[in-house]
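Problem 12. The chain below contains 179 residues. Write out its predicted structure in token notation.
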Amino acid sequence: FLVSGTFAEYGEYGLNHEYIPADSLLKPNGSYATTKAMFHEVCQQLSKEKQIKIIYARLFSVYGEGQNENNLWPSLKHAAINNLDFQMTKGEQVRDFISVDNVCVNFLKLIQKYNTIDPGNQITINIGSGIPKSVAEFSKYWWEKYESKGQLLIGALPYRKNEIMRYVPDIDSNLINLK
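Solution.
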């Protein structure tokens, strides 16, 4: 099985690492991240009990076509294309943004390496671009790419409560090399 998880599973343990290793402890915040972390544990148990192969891939800041319209990239794109002003936080959060297209490429690589995994052994890896970038940098890049006539209003919104300011994966620590 190939299962996708989320970087949000690391939660507050993300604060302990400049680059989060795939085997970091988990301390998720909120119900979404908690249920994903619980499912990770379920997958580990199933793998052992049923002697099945599982690759559990934690995805970092995926963006692209088909994404929920309320997320950063699609809402930014909509505003830019329509020359609307776009309110955002100061954008100091550092993330590893990866396009959905590159996630698909990584999934294909993982499927090709499936036979290298021993039954009963779940492999957990991080999937990201390997390029840390602030939310402001990411937003400015796309704003300029779409040549918007609207204003990018950086700092107009407050940060979320309990915002983790840096979530960047250590993709070199993965047990499966995707390069």
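Discussion. The CA atoms of residues 28 and 34 lie 5 Å apart. Students who got a different answer should revisit the alignment rule from Section 12.3.
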